[in-house]
Amino acid sequence: MNFEHLRALAAIIDEGTFEAAADLLKISPSAVSQRIKALENSVGRTVVRRGVPCAPTEAGAVLLRMARQVQVLEAETRHALGNGVSSRTVTPVAVNADSLITWFVPVLHEAAGWTDTTLDLHVEDQDHSSRLLRQGDVIAAVTADPAPVNGCRVERLGFMRYVPVAAPALHRRFTNGAGVDWAGMPMLEFNAKDDLQRQVLRSRGVDRTPPTHTIPSSEGFLAALRAGLGWGMIPELQLDTDLADGTLILLEEQAHRDVALHWQTWSLESERLNRITAAVRAAGRRQLRTTGQDRGKAAPGRP
Amino acid sequence: MNFEHLRALAAIIDEGTFEAAADLLKISPSAVSQRIKALENSVGRTVVRRGVPCAPTEAGAVLLRMARQVQVLEAETRHALGNGVSSRTVTPVAVNADSLITWFVPVLHEAAGWTDTTLDLHVEDQDHSSRLLRQGDVIAAVTADPAPVNGCRVERLGFMRYVPVAAPALHRRFTNGAGVDWAGMPMLEFNAKDDLQRQVLRSRGVDRTPPTHTIPSSEGFLAALRAGLGWGMIPELQLDTDLADGTLILLEEQAHRDVALHWQTWSLESERLNRITAAVRAAGRRQLRTTGQDRGKAAPGRP
Lengths: 303, 303
Hints:
2 copies of one chain form a homodimer.
Chain A: H1 3-15, H2 18-25, H3 29-43, E1 48-49, E2 55-56, H4 58-80, E3 89-95, H5 97-100, H6 105-111, E4 117-123, H7 126-134, E5 140-143, E6 152-166, H8 168-173, E7 175-176, E8 179-180, E9 187-189, H9 196-203, E10 212-214, H10 218-226, E11 232-235, E12 249-250, E13 257-266, H11 271-287
Parallel strand pairs in A: 3-4, 3-5, 9-10
Antiparallel strand pairs in A: 1-2, 5-13, 6-11, 6-12, 6-13, 7-8
Helix pairs in contact in A: 1-2, 1-3, 1-4, 2-3, 6-11
């Protein structure tokens, strides 16, 4: 295998076409084709699915991940040798939406002091994060899934607690002598994969789905809760003063759900990766819970 | 064309597989197949690309949109006839991330009072919104693009102003006697399509791209600005007290960018669609600017 060939593959996937990859690498499109052909001959399989944009085949994804790892190592070696000190390498990391705007914020503060790297955040749900790790699009990810992606290390960061809240007016409209009318009160969902609200309904023995609004944005979800559009599960970390000032009320003390969060990274000895891992670990320790209901199983949570 | 056939098509696309569509429609998978085959015979083209999940072909997308429109009309007719009053129909709407958490919030408040519909929001960039409108996945969208999708109505809502801001510490580090060092100061981008920062750099004659962090979340973007990770363009509507309390400072008075926002809806006489249009129009009028730099051309803006 040849570094130049791997670099050509990464450029095609990053840029989408052979022509754009050629521009990036400052070589001719036919030179790009030749490198890919050489790569395909050496592994005996097709590596790029031609299309707009081009996509890696299964074999291509494996090679692409190696290409990314080589890029990381190369950049660090260059940096250690004192070449290209002024240029920064990109650190691609996947993080779920709710984490990014809550406990992950101190990582951004830390990263503001790093002069050798920039962050390329991917805000993705957990399934997609695993795919991004597998094909080398990110080198690390916050995931709800404790099962390591092949070739990755995983550690548990802690638990993110979600609590059921609603605007007072909505709560009044759907509360009677028997308590909250869970089957009738409109509900919010982050997206189709967000099972947190339904978990609460099931635990209350409610099998009818109430009218459901879908709001796939962490901040939008909170805005919709405040607007009284529906009730929903929200990270306690995102609540701030809403409970204290009565903008939102806690529906039931006991109906919270704890989602275990994990940090997955490539098994790669990289100073840069170790540094971000240390920052993420410290941020998690400061704001996530150390114990939760969920004891390590994958909990279908909020992406 | 037959309503049952269209309904089968919509169910397959919504649920992903013929089997799941059969479950939803409470018919057998072979009955679903027969309906699709009948639909394909009647239009003389394939309408579903078999896969996991199934996807509409080009012809299928045209039919799918008709299917959605029929669903809207059917639901309203049912409602008008007094049947199924207690059930709600879903209103799928696309809105860009920055709008959702700023001027669009009053629409959520309005919608909290509607008892006949739930919102299914899609937070998408403008290109994707057009595709969603075209294939009938949403019936209305906030877009930056003034060109109506075929079969849609479009009206301008107003202008969203973006201003360049940074944390004071970052600003100090990259300001010298000559002013802001635009080529050196790290920058934030929402994603690869977010051209707002580069527009400002170009207008300042800067052709080198500074170190760039990518943060594809409106709230995360603001958190990263506050953390001093980089400078960036932020909706003035999102700034709140940040400028007043010195958390962020305005880099240049004159470097703002105005993005024209439009409301596109299907050309369909629907009471429900008219109601959300009225709410969106009113919310836009309250918070968006009526004039801007950009005079109606499509401005590549923040998704």
